[in-house]
Amino acid sequence: MLLTKGAKPDGSTNYAQGGIAAVTSPEDTFESHIADTLEAGDGLCKKRQVEILTKNAPKAIEQLIKWGVNFTTAQDDANSFDLHLEGGHSFRRILHTADLTGKEIMRALLAKLKRSSQGIDFIERSTVLDLILQKQRCVGAVVAEQDAKKARAVYAKTVVLATGGAGRLWLHSTNPPDACGEGISIAYRAGAALQDLEFMQFHPTSLYAPQLKKTFLISEAVRGFGGILKNHKGEEFMNNVHPLRSLAPRDIVARAILREMQLTGKDYMYLDVTHRKSKDIKTHFPNIYAKCLECKIDIAKDWIPVVPAAHYMCGGVLVDSYSRTNIKGLYACGEISATGVHGANRLASNSLLESVVFALRACEDMKKNCLNPDFQLSPLSTLNSQLSTLRNVSKLKKKVQTVMWEHCGIVRSMEGLRSGFEKLMKLEKSSDFEFRNFLESAMLVMESALKRKESRGLQCLTDYPEKNPRYLKHFTIKKHPE
Ligand SMILES: Cc1cc2nc3c(=O)[nH]c(=O)nc-3n(C[C@H](O)[C@H](O)[C@H](O)COP(=O)(O)OP(=O)(O)OC[C@H]3O[C@@H](n4cnc5c(N)ncnc54)[C@H](O)[C@@H]3O)c2cc1C
Fold first, then answer.
1. I need a labelling partner for 68 at 20 to 30 A (CA). Which of 28, 188, 446, 474 fits?
2. Coil, strand or helix: which one is 411?
3. Is any atom of ligand 1 closer than 6 Å to the C-beta of 164?
4. Does residue 11's CB lie within 6 angstroms of at least one atom of ligand 1?
């Protein structure tokens, strides 16, 4: 049984533009992919997990192709992939489907699901609120169906938490509306260990277009394609910041843009690709080209206004190399999991890869070990617990998002984090099921950030601007048994 809060393709996967990293060209090596990942992770990647990620990547790509994913092939050779270069990668190793890679993966997987003869129930608009434990084993979930005022219990031999990211806990985010980190608080209440939540990656270049309801991402691949960051005077401000200039790692670019915005008092900076041929721009980035045109920006002629936004949660529910959590019968896959491959900062296009590689390993392990033979599977049984909802929940969420943006954003301070945490504490402890998870997840992120008194990777503190070798470790948060 597959449960999803939104309608079918509503997760971040569907939004992923850039692509998926894998060593597929003869001149590239696993050693190089490993080294690039470790370099981005700023000392905190779990090396064994990175090796598993990179060395299983070609196999994962093969599996996706078998399931029907069509990656873009090279113009002059239909038997090899058109590989993109992205920030932090030493080689062209990003497989993509134009600039709609995630959408293509979702399309193929949903088609595969439809064709499957294994009787998988796919239930949309169902929100998981809590996990059910019996004798310290996870045996199911409490689920609210949208618009129903009741929660039901769903039992399962094995449970996989795959609720995605948490970007929507912040005011500005590239994530879809459902990515509000609910898996964090759901897992925490069940007793699962959480790790590395302080490392939220802010994407440097989301499109600045206040008229749009949803934020729109200008993929990293645009900088890989030669895009140059400029301020309003046309100055290439990245030249003095990093040897890779506009192609520097994301955290460095995000901070540099924020700094330039503060220095110049502007609400956004620019990304310029006008020096590339119009035809090439349209071929490589048809989706970005069309979206910008909708906002009256012709990227072949105009500079693209960009601003940073919360993008990717490196941490999450702690798992091992088979995606197992510390709770029997409970796995976590995708962005909600903390496999340790990203360390303190994620290398671009390693996240789709992580989702596929570690989900395949979870399946492998489940088949072998985890289908609890003693357990009787009963599909939907009523729990009949009444759910309370609040009318002003979106206003409350906005308050949390503002606190997170202002106190736990791209640049932080211990004092700011402490006062932000107090603000969250004071927010209404409502019984609204959705808001409870939202607020709790935000507080857990804030708590993690408060533990790391140093600047490393995505944690950037004004009052602790240096790395501190004492903090070269992971912080784990776990509920004390009651
Ligand atoms: C704009 C954008 C561009 C990106 N580009 C790239 C890229 O080019 N390359 C790359 O590697 N990565 C990229 N990423 C990151 C990558 O897309 C994600 O990390 C990855 O797709 C996460 O997959 P997932 O299955 O964990 O989560 P998702 O695809 O987000 O799926 C999570 C699902 O869980 C459901 N859900 C959430 N809460 C609940 C609940 N309580 N109950 C029931 N269901 C729930 C949601 O409705 C959703 O269906 C991008 C992300 C964004 C936002």
1. 28
2. coil
3. yes
4. yes
Give me the architecture of the 390-474 domain, per CATH: Up-down Bundle (1.20)
E strands present in 17-117: 20-21, 73-74, 77-81, 94-95
What tens digit of pLDDT does each residue of 211-268 get?
887 889 998 889 989 999 999 999 999 999 999 999 888 888 999 999 999 899 999 9
201-310, CATH topology level: Flavocytochrome C3; Chain A, domain 1 (3.90.700)
User: Which atom of ligand 1 is nearest the CA belonging to 143?
Assistant: 42
137 catalytic per annotation: no
Residue 63 CA, chain-centre distance (Å), reads 22
Does 175 sit in the ligand 1 pocket, CB within 6 Å?
yes
CATH 1.20.58.100 positions along the chain are: 390-474
The CATH 3.90.700.10 portion of the chain extends over 201-310
User: Is the CB of residue 19 below 6 angstroms from any atom belonging to ligand 1?
Assistant: yes
Alpha helices in 310-431 (DSSP H): 351-365, 393-407, 414-426
Q: Which of 168, 250, 255, 346 is catalytic?
A: 250
For residue 381, name the pLDDT band (cuts at 50, 70, 90).
low
**Ligand 1 center from residue 454 Cα (angstroms):** 29
